[in-house]
Amino acid sequence: MNKQCMLFFAAILLAFLIISPGMAAASKCTYTNVTACDARQMIEEEDIFILDVCTPSGYDDGQIEGAVLIPLRNLKSDPDALSPDELLPARMKELPCNRNTKILVYCKVGKRGAEASSLLVDAGYKEVSNLEGGLTKWVQEGYPIVATYDSWKNVWYLLLSPQ
Question: Which GO terms label this protein's molecular function in UniProt (predicted)?
């Protein structure tokens, strides 16, 4: 093989080694953080699975209409801890079978929602959105929740907490 041909192959190999990690990173599926306004628009305009990953007591305080409760994890301060088989990692089979289904995930303030969104992406879901600021931001923006009168007084902290 002549020198010019070897230089050509070396240049192609070098280009491949430089470009391929970027291509792999670009193809990795991630979730999207969305604002309360964007989430509301998604709910109104699209067929979407709404996943609430709060604790049962948080869900009882109020939830977005149509949301399915599958808690991500127990909170240290929660006296009514759930067993591991009642939490999201063990209940993935309750999510839509179609991995292309659009899923909106939320919790109270967004942290557990982000964790759950990562878990869903790792499980192969491709259209996952996390509500930034969680239900707190949703309520502060004036969007409706489903709540009983008794639970509503527990939700006032969402309206009164600083933005």
Answer: thiosulfate-cyanide sulfurtransferase activity
Residues 6+ apart with CB under 8 A from 50: 43, 64, 66, 67, 68, 103, 104, 106
- Domain count within the chain: 2
In terms of DSSP H, where are the helices of 46-87? 56-61
Residue carrying structure tokens 């931001």? 137
- Cα separation, 83 vs 61, in Å, equals 21
Supply the pLDDT for residue 26: 44
- Over residues 65-102, the pLDDT tens digits come to 999 999 998 877 777 788 889 999 999 999 999 999 99
Same domain? For 1 and 41 the reply is no
* Euclidean distance between CA atoms 85 and 160, whole angstroms: 35
Q: Where in the sequence is the domain holding 101, given as residue range(s)? A: 31-160
For residue 98, the SS3 value is coil
Closest of 143, 132, 141, 129 to residue 110, by C-alpha: 132
Residues 109 and 148 in one domain: yes
The rounded distance, in Å, linking the Cα atoms of 20 and 36 is: 36
The rounded distance, in Å, linking the Cα atoms of 35 and 40 is: 9
